[in-house]
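Entry 14: structure prediction run for Late. Input pasted below.
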Amino acid sequence: MTEEFDPQIYENQKKGQNKCKQPCIVALGILLAIIFILCIIILILALTVFKIKDPKIEVLSVAVDGIALVPPSHFFKYKFNITLDLKIQVENPNRASFRHEAGKSELT
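Run finished. Output tokens:
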């Protein structure tokens, strides 16, 4: 039993495959377009709205609470202990917030 090649059957099968591929290609194109648009929106937001800006720091007042002379030790002759009371205002221009608590600094 030999089958002959029928060009009409071949053409019908080829048309059926193209009908199946076309919606898949359209759906893939739409998906890629949506992903591209989302990437552009994220990039624009990252460069404008969510761009990190430096906080504005302003010293409102400075007061000396105490000065103490620490007795000499084996390595140092004299030490001064000066206590300052600083009132600082911090303004955050960013969308994200942060908290800060009482700070301590040491000068040597």
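Notes: The helical segments are 7-47. Will compare against the previous run tomorrow.
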